[in-house]
Amino acid sequence: VQLQASGGGLAQAGGSLRLSCVASGRTFSRYALGWFRQAPGKEREFVAVITPSWSGAHTYYADSVKGRFTISRDNAKNTVYLQMNSLQPEDTAVYSCAVVVVGPDEVYGRSFYDSDLNYDYWGQGTLVTVSS
User: Fold this and answer.
1) Comparing C-alpha atoms, which of 61, 9, 11 is closest to residue 36?
2) Is pLDDT above 90 for 5?
């Protein structure tokens, strides 16, 4: 599986950006799709995830972005989006998308998707810079 993220750039505080990540593969609907970010000098942290469509496409968010960011998926386009509103300087980071290939009998909750160790494939990052 190959992932290509785009949409990063410079935004002012209070502004918005939308990130996109296109995934290869013929079983996109089975993927759980996550976004992580890594700020300079900090560890990578979970941002959001959307579960496979067949399991209900549930969404989970980090507390720091809840109510401001929205993750969605378009299975027809093999694409996952991260709409980021009310951006703050502390949102500045490299954002990466990642995939968990979920089997037909597998159901995972938020605690599973929080850990980057559970993701099978990663895309390159896209830089988001928020100025104050």
Assistant:
1) 61
2) yes
Choose among 95, 112, 6, 8: nearest CA to 51: 112
Backbone phi and psi for residue 9, each to the nearest 5 degrees, phi listed first: 165, -160
Q: What is the pLDDT of residues 19-77, one digit of tens each?
A: 999 999 888 989 999 999 999 999 999 999 999 988 889 999 999 999 999 999 999 99
- In angstroms, the CA 129 to CA 88 distance is 9
Q: Is 118 left (phi over 0), alpha (psi -120 to 50) or beta?
A: alpha
Q: Are 98 and 19 in contact (CB under 8 A)?
A: no
How many of the other CB atoms lie within 10 Å of CB of 48? 23
Backbone angles phi, psi at 35, to 5 degrees: -120, 135
CA pair distance 104, 2, nearest whole angstrom: 21
